[in-house]
Amino acid sequence: MRRNLEPLELDMGVQIPYYFRCPISLELMRDPVTVSTGQTYDRASIESWVATGNTTCPVTRAPLSDFTLIPNHTLRRLIQDWCVANRSFGIERIPTPKQPADPALVRSLLNQASSGSNNLNSRVSALRRLRGLARDSEKNRALILSNNVCEILLSIAFSASDSVDLNHEALAVLALFPLSEAQCVFVASDSDRVTYLVSLLSHSSIDVRVNSAAVIEMAVAGTRSPELRSQVSNADGVYEGIIGILNYPLAYPRALKIGVKALFALCLVKQHRHRAVTTGAVEALVDRLADFEKCDAERALATVELLCRIPSGCAAFSGHALTVPLLVKIILKISDRATEYAAGALLSLCSASDQAQREAVAAGVLTQLLLLVQSDCTDRAKRKAQMLLKLLRDSWPEDSIANSDDFACSDVVPF
């Protein structure tokens, strides 16, 4: 045990004082908290210790009389000062942690927000404080969610008797939490609620628009009823509103993230995909493809593949000059899933159009596909790549055909 109390030497040649180190992890404490025995630990470490069923103090082995964790602000400030003093060694100052929400405060805010006897400003203020707490940490969101928050928020968000500001603030908080299937059905099964959400997609505030899109996406994705999903995706103006969010001219990552999630969910309903095409989904997806982060790019490419499965979508993507070159360029650059979707989209486009085949070959698709079938990507991606290679064989330049013999394709999964 004595060895653990010796200063820990970092790679950059500076030592961490032992009293700055968590006795459990032996790492520099970022959020020191004191337990009932008087010992101090890093919050993440002691919470993990307790979560695995331990009821004693790791250092003293004494029983923990309660599991209250008291922030050790003095020690945390000393650690921060030490980090600043040693910044020349490449040590970054630890940020001041945000404290977990107090359960009593959460209950009080929910009561304040849901009580019709309170004045409007008080109710809106309570919802804004809840939103701030929810944004602070996953732990806070779990705590708030355990207090039946979504039921309360749904009743406020769709209440015609409450003010518009209160409706919008409730929707903003609701967008931060997952909805149960029953709650998704509550939204999707009522045409008035769906119409209300769609109307907000053209609101002057981009935040209101994005929050509404988030709830629409959850309602569509969270219900297993094909009829209800179709009802939402067939609502007048829903595609126009979602695509408008994707086309928002200013840099707003959340708009892109929620917009592509909602568009993908809507496009899973096959019978209404043509509406996405006629309202500009093709242009929005191609023009924004380079702006998406990894997970969002996967969804965007999955949506492209879905729309390429209908004739109007395939024709629209073929008619966009950037579609094929972009798909070829990114086919191996994002993730295995993205590779699979891009290959599937290219297969659909090239199956429907000789022009797309020529564009793909000119963009270097042959090399990409030969690399793909030799890679560790998914079997489905390899099957799509193999089918595309066969489809394009007559379009290959002579020197490319000769060079392709260097690649062993026999290990590709048969289709």
UniProtKB/TrEMBL annotation:
Q: Where is the U-box domain?
A: 15-89
Q: Which PROSITE patterns match?
A: U_BOX
Top-level taxon of origin: Eukaryota
Quickly give the catalysed reaction: S-ubiquitinyl-[E2 ubiquitin-conjugating enzyme]-L-cysteine + [acceptor protein]-L-lysine = [E2 ubiquitin-conjugating enzyme]-L-cysteine + N(6)-ubiquitinyl-[acceptor protein]-L-lysine
Keywords associated with the record: Transferase, Ubl conjugation pathway
Top EC category: transferase
Query: Tell me, which GO biological process terms does this entry list?
Result: defense response; protein ubiquitination
Q: In which pathway does it act?
A: Protein modification; protein ubiquitination
The task this protein performs is described as: Functions as an E3 ubiquitin ligase.
- State what protein this is by name: U-box domain-containing protein
